[in-house]
## 1
Amino acid sequence: MSAYWEYPGYGPTNDEVVNHQDLIFGWFRRKQRKLKLPFDLLIDGVSFREVQASWTFCNVGDRFIEGARQYLLAWSDPETKLAVWSTVTLYENYPTVEWTVHLRNEGDSDTPLIENLYGLDLVFKREETGEFLLRHNVGSPGNETDYRPLLTPLGPGARAALGGEGGRASSKDMPYLNLDWGGRGVICAVGWPGQWKADFKRNNRLKCRVRAGQERTRFRLHPGEYFRSPLIVLQSWEGDWIHAQNVWRRWMVEFNLPKPGGQPVKPLLLAGANRAFEEMMNATVENQIQFIDRYVEEGINIDAWWMDAGWYPNQGRWGDVGTWEVDRKRFPDGLRPISDHAHANGIKTMLWFEPERVAPGSWLASNKPEWVLDSPTADLSWGRLLNLGELEVLDWVTERVDSILQSEGIDWYRQDHNIPPLDFWRTADAEDRQGIAENRHVFAYLALWDELQRRHPGMLIDSCASGGRRNDLKTMRRAVPLWRSDYAFVPDAHQQQTYGIAMWLPFFGTGTVACEGVPYYGSGHTEVQGYAFWSNCAPSLVCMFDMREKGLDYDAIRRLISARAEIADDFLGDYYPLTPCHEGPDEWIAWEFVRPELGRGFVTAFRRPECADEKRSFPLHGIDKDADYTVWNAEYPDRKRQVSGRELAENGLVIGIKTLPGAETVAFRKVE
């Protein structure tokens, strides 16, 4: 049982869990004719909800898994031999349920036409008071809007449509949504690393219909063929919407964050020379080892050394992928000497791959053209899409990646995805096979990661897709986004990124040179600015300093990194925005991360460059009003003071920042 159950008010209430379970059993009743299924599909134009009562039904029963009970409901059509089943997981101590819909043709001929498979199709009813409000976030299009929180009112007759873009799940919208109807609501996640959609349609009275699934499904299954819906997760809530977000975060930490080697992922400090050497295009064994040695020399203790794109043979661009071998002209002995040197210093190594894209002139393009999908409507400037959904292709990629990880001594795997795959998938599908290529690709992508992690149980996977364009729940159960956005080194934008992404993902990362306004690639001396550093601060942080510059202010760098280390574990606690997500340069923006059960947390506040107010007060959450707290600027732990919990909770933590722009991170600990 979760530790926070000892601290009423921070986790879900017992009423929330009981009411939620009653609701779920209303959908998945054990008697077939009383089923109120929360999903639907059309079979030759007829709703599955209408025909399922005439099919053979099997309630396979339930089983206990850690912290949850899992059910399997299955149907089979005696005539067409189409099998439909749903795996349902109901969490014991959370108001959370998840399910996936599966289809298989168990007959000897093609199935009838299957259309509009919605893994979620439900109607929610509000009370006479209150109104529907959809809380959601921009995804990561790679600009100043990344992860921005959005509010969409759903008044009578209103409609909202959200989804992926170009076949990448979080390129346009985050696939995590909170439908609020005034003191009650439901969080919905669509776990699908492809082209998902969610449609919210309000009637003129008290109801809102929600449907979600793979965007286009219109197909016949061949004999033996399998298809599945996106993962659907619902978490019902009562009371305060931000309380619901923190119940969600706690569920994410307990049941979803990867556990490499069986251990929960912890905050990370990484380093790489990717900015100085244009990824690995200008890298050598010598300059990689030089940078590692300089971090050791300066006493900056990093967890892993990050080697990004460009280590393979290419035609002068790191984007020329498809020849998956180490470039022996630049690395005669491979990357192993770098890994061995890092390991000798207690540092792991991470290596970048992008197996789903094939550039012209690469080994795959020249030797396996039948493995590559084409499309007359796709932008081919970045190459074409590898047909990963074919078993032969998946097997080759798995073996190739695994052999490199082993031969080069690589500990962690980083996978990028810089090509929108949707046009390639849809070109590959016949008119009565729409959705098949995408479904196969998604299945293979997840299978690749599962197999790599089986072979390397302690391996952490970093999910990257032109920044943060594939951060759906199925992906986040296997990986963490160590580079949340390609919109880098812009402090105010990074403040917004943390503000928004932390609502849904408790673990994420970015990079820093602790200096604003620097170009994406560059080298040489950079100033050390606290405002820029704290804007970049995240559970995982990759240092990108040019360590050849011995004139950098290393004392300031060490002070900032030490301050972050003091508060980093608290990123995995509850999260509270303390201000609106201001976009302008004349405002304050602040947030709090707190672990009430441990009596500790921190606040980070920013005074933006045109803000006139030097001081703000922020009432804190998760505070024991009857206790005292030690409070201090995280950069200066020798300047501690004591404040009552009642003062912090009711009147607020006072932060004064004289510089423009300026930032301060204040840590607090309960006095025992």
Note: The mean pLDDT is 95.
## 2
Amino acid sequence: MMMISAQQLTQYHGAHLVLDGITFEIMEGDKVALIGRNGSGKTTLMRLMARLNKPDEGQLMIKKDTRMGYVAQVPEGLDEHTVLDVLSLGFKELMICRTQMKEMEQQMSDPACAADPNQLERLLKRYAALQDQFEREGGYEMDARIDQVANGLDIAKAHYGWRFGSLSGGEQTRVVLASQLIVKPDLLLLDEPTNHLDLERVEWLEGFLREYPGTIVLISHDRYFLDRVVNRTLELEDGEAETSAGGYTEYMKVKEQRLLQQFEEFKEQQKVIKKMKETIRQLEEWGRVGGNEKFFRRAASMRKALERMEQVKRPVLERRNAEFDVRPTDRTGKRVAVLEQVEKSYGEREILRGISGLLEYGDKIALIGRNGSGKTTLFKLLLGDEQPNAGRLEWGARVDVGYLAQQEEPTNPKLNVLEYFRLEAGVEEGEARGILARYLFYGADVFRSVGQLSGGEWTRLRLALLVQRKPNVLLLDEPTNHLDIASREALEESLGDFEGTVLAISHDRYFVNRLASRVWELEDGQMTAYLGDYEAYREKKLDLQARAAATTQATAGVGVSSRGNAKSELKSGLTFASSGTARSGKQPEATSTLNGSTVAATDGSRDYEVSTKSGKALTPSAAVSKHRSGNGNNQSAEKLEQTLARLEAEIQVLDQQLETVQNNPLELEQIWNDREQLSTEYNNVLAQWAEL
């Protein structure tokens, strides 16, 4: 069934035509990507679908009684609400219902009400109706649904009481996004939902949207995200709309074939038009020379046919893109930057805990990690804006650093683009115009104030200033944020050819795949280096997680048992290996040496012996006899049993910790080594106990 139908939709911004009679249809259950260059009208069309604006011409029809959710790029009008208020926006009726139920509960608990049977009966009936409505509309699952989605988008429950206006732009976007995902509307409209999300949250959102039962229309420049979520693509270009099945990559293949076919049709039609024009000219010439009216009539008839002909539009096979041509004036030495056991904390909060790394000439490294993991802090340390608490951080020779911040406000937003660039770059007007044109600022665009630029245009202008400085080391903090896909691809190509060193923070997996030869991951204050691009990193990461899970399962059966279990294990042929793990004694004979003592067991036999360095062997009866005959042996045995119990408890605590750190190889290794030492000590004490 059809969800949205647009017929000859036309929209203007002032005198500027944004949408030129576009027509398209979206069916129920479709997951549609709305793509196009910055300024192509994507947000304009999204606001029309959200019924926030009305079209100037044409019709936009949406299925009747459709519940709609819209997440704008920049949330507005919610500053005075709490985070929980915003998360609960879609449950407004249920919240009112719950409030009424609580008020009625208080009334019914009043002794005066209980003394009036008629009033109590009326309240009970009303309460039952409200409770039925509350249950039918999912009121009892409301809090759980809020917590589930908020947790998936990394919104802490402790922050529910915070004022929405006090949050950063990225945090506000996540809260508003969560408020719509919670209520699961029939039609979900998302404008750049992955902006400000880290990789883990983007992947969570991917999984959520893939399983989403409703219809989704989303604007995004994240090509990896689009390929994994959508099943249709709608592109706005030159005021027109083109649709095709599949994600971004599939759509671009179809588009290339369509443009090539259209170009062939255009060339063939131009040949026909040229012949018709030549024939018209010739007929008119014959009519003038011979004075024959029939030649004029034939020429006029042919001219009318030419005018009625539906002309094929000449396709633009290669559109102009921004030229991020970064050419350093000087080359750095082989070693660009060295990090050795760098630590950084703010108060009691540890951000970086002894990280080390080497940045060499020509490296293209992607720095990734969760929001708050310390990526921007590391950049501040490299730039000298912050100082490490411990460790060493040194730059190499002839290093000239160029830095692009994730968020940066213009020093004077009232200046126009041309004035701002001239002031910051220190160039004359003619040269400035030529440079700005390479970054798609030409004509009247250069006279727009920088405060009115879109996010993508502001990023392009900052990149133009960065390139103008010609640095040989680039520190880029989310450089693709707000850039359209064409600009991202142009930036990727330029950075790939850059004869210098790049360290880029990015959550754009497509960008990382095209640029990075290494990946640095920050997690829990530690940094891990991976060779290869994002796909190689992801494969290795999953492999490490699988190994950690296997290790945890293997340690679940470690020989950590009670004193009684230790006796039965020795009798039934369990052998304690030097690693501290327990192995089934299925072999004819198995031994393990522990600091000079050997615990041996023979399968199928209840006899065992404990050999010491002296080579003396003790049978069970001899051991018992020695235990009984020795003075003070009872007290020694009790002490050993207490030690065994303590070691068992400590090993169990480490086992629990192993299950919680599967995603951190360094911490996993440290805990495992500690466990090994405790297991060795446990086996030594057990051997002593067995000897007694």
Note: The radius of gyration is 36 Å.
